[in-house]
Design brief:
Blueprint lengths: L1 H14 L15 H26 L1 E9 L6 E10 L6 E7 L4 E2 L4 E6 L5 H19 L3 H7 L22 E11 L3 E7 L1 E5 L2 E5 L12 E9 L12 E3 L6 E15 L4 E15 L11 E8 L2 E9 L2 H37 L25
Parallel strand pairs: 12-14, 12-15
Antiparallel strand pairs: 1-15, 2-6, 2-10, 3-4, 3-7, 5-6, 7-14, 8-9, 10-11, 10-13, 12-13
Helix pairs in contact: 2-5
Length: 371
């Protein structure tokens, strides 16, 4: 009985076979079929190879939500060189709540106004990347994915002493501020802190020494991500007027970055520049200096690196192989059908009529009445 059941089950499985086998004696191979098969296998191999690179590639996914973290501090990273001596300039931050932020984290370093060739080349490269970022926003995804730990983000310290006079001041460091609108500014005189206002001691600085030509080597918000180019990195402004005001209006967007190389809480920002000459007689009032007015956005962006799942890659690979196999088979059959019609119409090839040979028959019956 068990053998009978096994035979019935085996016959049932054979009936469900969707891939019937054809004996090799019934299979006919042709040169055209072999050519098409080679083309099909080559196309399958190439497309499967390129599909593997698509599988390895990643893309950035952007998600937006309301920023509910209003109690944390915002970090500002600064590296700016001003064409004035360090004892003549001062930098501090005043936020919207009239809170004076102490500049304990900011350092003043006397430097030369001249730039080395290497630094000029780096600034030129930064400007090229910034221009491409403005024209082609997809480049930002490349920067997110290719970020490397240890990449330079700011001007390196001077290693070789220069004989040029140290007539400029490098202001660098980081400070923590409240997550409200504020104003980071660099102007004449050191800042003083008192409960009734905000002031800089500029009475002892000669007006002829005012020169707010500057270079922004690095300016960012939040955790520093090595290798990421910020909108103001590499900016250089030169003026010949002593009474010049440079203004940068910045909108900061909190950003969480999650990639295969780094995971950090940082901030993106957009900036609008404006500059003018202070002339009280012409109605252009203000204070000479560099003013960066920032404001935080209420939205938070989460940028995560996405990867194609393995099952989707296998499905696409099966589609490539099966699709090419079926398509080339149909094309080969259609071309053969058209070829048969043409040959039949013009009687070519196998349809060419065969020549019929007529043979003369001789009667070989002997004559019964020989002479």
């Amino acid at each position: 009985m068990r053998r009978l059941y096994r035979k019935k089950a085996l016959s049932l499985v054979k009936e469900l076979d969707a891939f019937p086998k054809v004996p090799e004696s019934y299979v006919e191979t042709t040169a055209s079929g072999g050519t098409v098969s080679l083309i099909a296998f080559t196309a399958m191999a190439l497309l499967a190879f390129f599909e593997f690179f698509v599988y390895r590639d990643t893309w950035m996914k952007y998600e937006y939500e309301v920023d509910k973290d209003f109690s944390s501090k915002l970090r500002i990273n600064i590296d700016i060189t001003v064409a004035m001596k360090c004892q003549h300039v001062g930098a501090d931050i005043l936020d919207l709540a009239e809170t004076m932020i102490t500049s304990n984290g900011i350092q003043y370093e006397p430097v030369s106004r001249l730039l080395s060739f290497l630094l000029h080349y780096r600034l030129w490269t930064l400007l090229l990347i910034q221009n491409r970022l403005r024209e082609e926003h997809s480049l930002q995804e490349v920067l997110y994915k290719s970020v490397l730990k240890g990449a330079p983000t700011a001007l390196p310290p001077r290693e070789v002493a220069t004989s040029e006079p140290l007539g400029a001041c490098r202001i660098h460091g980081h400070v923590y501020v409240n997550k409200v609108a504020g104003n980071f500014h660099i102007t004449v005189g050191k800042p003083i802190h008192h409960p009734r206002g905000h002031a800089h001691i500029a009475a002892f600085v000669s007006h002829d020494t005012y020169n707010f030509s500057h270079r922004i080597d690095h300016f960012s918000f939040g955790e520093e991500i090595p290798g990421i180019i910020n909108p103001l990195d590499g900016t250089e402004k030169v003026t010949t007027n002593n009474n010049h005001m440079f203004q940068y209006f910045i909108t900061v967007v909190p950003t969480k970055l999650h990639t295969s190389k780094v995971s950090a809480d940082t901030h993106q920002f957009s900036v609008t520049e404006r500059e003018r000459v202070i002339n009280h007689a012409a109605g252009s009032h203000g204070v000479s200096g560099i003013f960066m007015k920032y404001d935080t956005s209420s939205l938070m962006v989460t940028v995560s690196e996405q990867h194609m799942p393995l099952w989707q890659f296998l499905v696409r690979l099966c589609g490539i192989i099966g699709g090419i196999f079926s398509t080339t088979g149909m094309i080969h059959g259609f071309v053969g059908f058209c070829f048969d019609i043409v040959c039949c119409r013009f009687k070519l090839g196998t349809y060419k009529p065969k020549e019929v040979r007529h043979c003369t028959s001789f009667n070989l019956t002997p004559n019964p009445n020989p002479s």
